[in-house]
Specification:
Layout: H1 6-26, H2 28-39, H3 43-71, H4 73-93, H5 97-125, H6 128-139, H7 141-156, H8 160-181, H9 203-237, H10 242-256, H11 262-269, H12 271-291, H13 296-324, H14 334-357, H15 360-381
Helix pairs in contact: 1-4, 1-5, 1-6, 1-7, 1-8, 2-9, 3-4, 3-5, 3-14, 4-5, 4-8, 5-6, 6-13, 7-8, 7-10, 9-12, 9-13, 9-14, 9-15, 10-13, 11-12, 12-13, 12-15
């Protein structure tokens, strides 16, 4: 079969990421109000369940480089999309909060496997000069998956089980596409086969990755409140209808498409300013939702800004880590993306506790202030960053 073109790789990778990230991981908050009503889930329990896909993501992404080497890029991609289908279908059929938790846990595993597999696939088929742009475009596929949830809510209203059944069907199609089109590679099972390149160990490289990862923890924590509780806030605190939150998630998806330009943003404005801009936009989105949670127009503006800020930042961590560790594309994004998930594991139950103990408004304002603090820290930490060749920039 003819090798994928850069455009073909960007399209296929975006589709897989749309399923594993957008649908399997991040649309949970959109359906949370209906799930809470049907399964009698408290705010604190909702925060704990919302943290589970982030938690399983931590373990999955740590294993992902080994899984990708062992299975090969094609089988690893199929496994990621297939597990997304299993998790989504488990959620659709869940009779209790316990099985709902199992489903979101499996969805998190699929998410953790997908990014390293797509990064390796890009390194196989895309010329070096285009890899940053293609990786950022694939990462922005998350926004496509989130946007898909919008018509699902409008069609099925509060029938979240039907929506998740449809998502599981899309995951099956993504697995089939991965099987047909991802580059074929024999699994590494023989000691005589070449070993993967040794990971960079220079002090400068590890400092660069450590800075990214530390900042990613803060960003993940800030974002968790929005992913899990933004729809809950506008429905329960603002009085908006559940169908209106579908339009919010459409705006998150559309705004997030700007994340495809993360690589170009780094090239033009530098790492420090690119990172601070993304976090400032995210903090503003949280603050706007506090102004008047019952205003549909402000909710849409908030959602678009949040999608833009979040996808710029995840694209930033992905592209910048691969620039730092050019010889290990499967491992490069592991630590920053892992750190993002660690922050989300902390942020989700913390937000749930604050909502239960206080209010949505106070919770979102505190998380907005945290976002600005992380932005300021990034301006300092990223002033002397690591260039694409592994030397101080």
């Amino acid at each position: 079969m003819k090798p994928l073109s850069p455009l073909g790789m960007a399209t296929l990778g975006s589709g897989v990421i749309a399923i594993t990230y957008g649908l399997a991981r991040f649309v949970f908050g959109l359906f949370l109000p209906s799930m809470r009503d049907e399964l009698t889930i408290s705010p604190t329990m909702a925060g704990v369940i919302g943290a589970l896909p982030f938690l399983s993501f931590v373990f999955a992404i740590l294993a992902a480089p080994w899984v990708t080497r062992r299975l090969g890029v094609r089988r690893a991609g199929v496994a990621a999309a297939g597990l997304a289908g299993v998790g989504l279908m488990t959620i659709a059929l869940a009779p209790s909060s316990l099985l709902l938790a199992v489903g979101v846990l499996v969805c998190g595993i699929s998410t953790g496997l997908s990014s390293p597999a797509m990064a390796v696939a890009v390194s196989r088929v895309v010329p070096p000069g285009l890899r940053g742009r293609v990786n950022a475009t694939i990462n922005a596929g998350t926004s496509v998956g989130i946007a898909i949830a919008m018509p699902s809510v409008l069609i099925w209203a509060e029938a979240w089980r039907s929506a998740y059944t449809g998502f599981a069907a899309l995951a099956a199609l993504a697995a089939l596409a991965a099987l047909c089109f991802l580059p074929r590679e024999a699994p590494r099972t023989s000691p005589s086969q070449p070993r993967p390149p040794a990971l960079p160990v220079s002090r400068e490289v590890w400092l660069g990755i450590s800075r990214l990862s530390g900042l990613a923890v803060g960003m993940g924590c800030v974002s968790a409140a929005y992913w899990v509780f933004a729809p809950d806030a506008v429905i329960n605190a603002g009085g908006l209808a559940p169908s209106q939150t579908a339009w919010m998630w459409l705006m998150v998806g559309l705004g997030g498409l700007t994340g495809a330009g993360a690589g170009d943003l780094i090239s033009r404005f530098g790492p420090a300013m690119s990172h601070a801009t993304g976090l400032a936009v995210m903090a503003i989105s949280l603050a706007i939702l506090v102004i008047d949670p019952g205003s549909f127009a402000l909710a849409l503006l908030s959602s678009a800004l949040f999608g833009a800020g979040y996808m710029i930042l995840t694209g930033f961590y992905l592209v910048r880590s691969i620039q730092i560790m050019t010889e290990a594309p499967a491992f490069a994004p592991v630590l920053p993306l892992l750190a993002t998930s660690v922050g989300q594991v902390v942020g989700s139950p913390l937000a749930g506790w604050l909502v239960g103990a206080g209010s949505h408004a106070a919770t979102f304002m505190l998380f907005a202030l945290l976002g600005l603090a992380v932005a300021g820290l990034g301006l300092w930490l990223l002033k002397e960053s690591i260039g694409a060749d592994g030397t101080p920039a």
